[in-house]
Amino acid sequence: PWETVSDPVSDVTLTIAAGLDGEALHLLDNTAGAQAELIQEFDPVTQVVVDYYMRSDNADHEGVFVMLGGDVGSDYTLSFGNESGGSGRRGWIGLFGGSGGWIVPEFLEYEEGRWYHVRRTLDAANDEGTFYVAAVDDNGDDIASKSYTHSIGSNYVNNTVDRVYVWTSGSQKADAYLDSLSITEYDPPSNTAPVAYYPFDGDASDASG
């Protein structure tokens, strides 16, 4: 099961709601200063793809961060929505580097209420990483998209990741939906193996079999 590790979480509501296809995890935080952090661990891997769908319903609120991690630290992530003190980030999806700050603060403009497809590839064996983000149309198909490739940082080279974080910022409000989160190991890219799959249909259990 997912582990809740942050405190306080009393002002953050976690529910199962209507999603892109079936149901989704809804994270609602109307109080700046509250924070929810969920962690799911899996067997350590060096080459992994995290794929999910995100919808943020309020550009004045920050979306939900989805981030890989391991014993050496946490990975880069995407931020949906408002960032206090930043110029031009309201209504944008930004690429965030944790303690390194913003990498690309205006990565892709987003619309409130629209689903977005996000794919993060992390290759710790070769110091490579990519982000892919696409708006999704009413049929569930990717339309406008953008990709970004970068090194992953010395901490992760030849190390492993073994957990995925889903969390809301403690400094921003959040109103976002997360759907169909999958974790897949690959080596090489043509040879893949499912690690976990969370459709959030009825609950937050692993449906990968």
Which structural class do the helices and strands define?
mainly beta
Give the biggest sheet.
Answer: 8 strands, antiparallel
Q: Helix count, per DSSP? A: 0
Low-confidence stretches: 84-88
Task: Estimate the mean pLDDT confidence.
Answer: 76
Which sequence of SSEs, written as H and E, runs from N to C?
EEEEEEEEEEEEEEEE
The percent range for strand residues is over 45%
Q: Which value, in Å, is the CA radius of gyration? A: 16 Å
How many E strands? 16
Helix content: under 10%
What kind of assembly state do the chains in view correspond to? single chain
Shape: globular
Determine the N-to-C terminus distance: 14 Å
Q: What does this 3D model show about the protein?
A:
With 209 residues, the chain is mainly beta. Helices cover 0% and strands 55% of the residues. It is built from no helices and 16 strands. The strands form 3 sheets. Strands 2, 3, 5, 11, 12, 13, 15 and 16 form an 8-stranded antiparallel β-sheet that branches. A 5-stranded antiparallel β-sheet has the order 1-4-14-6-7, with no helix packed on it. It has a 3-stranded antiparallel β-sheet with strand order 8-9-10, with no helix packed on it. β6 (65-70) and β7 form a beta hairpin. The protein is globular and about 40 Å long. The two termini are 14 Å apart. Mean pLDDT is 76; it is low at 84-88.
